[in-house]
Design goal:
This protein is about 45% helix and about 0% strand. By secondary structure, it is mainly alpha-helical. It has a domain at about 45-85. α2 packs across α3. The termini are far apart.
Length: about 90
């Protein structure tokens, strides 16, 4: 157990210049993004127990929770063009 004033969570310091912080996103990346630039965020509410089970399943497969859920969604909702291919 940590004592008073000690936290296991770390927060990123607030940027000094908001304008420069926002424009930093315009610079060319030296590393590729972890996901496609053409993505949309999806937020759902699940019970803590379901979240635990999903995280455990992802860990067992060596995936992140997000990658596991993306794969499941792609499998459940295939692209209509790919479905019609002979």
């Amino acid at each position: 157990m940590s004592g008073p004033g000690k936290s296991s969570r770390r927060f990123v310091a607030r940027p000094r210049g908001v304008e420069s912080w926002v424009s930093d996103g315009d610079r060319e990346r030296t590393t590729p993004p972890s996901r496609s630039a053409n993505t949309a965020r999806l937020t759902i509410d699940v019970t803590p127990e379901l979240r635990r089970r999903i995280k455990f399943a992802a860990l067992q497969r060596g995936l992140t929770l997000a990658d596991l859920l993306r794969a499941l969604l792609v499998e459940a909702f295939p692209d209509e063009d790919q479905e019609r291919a002979p």
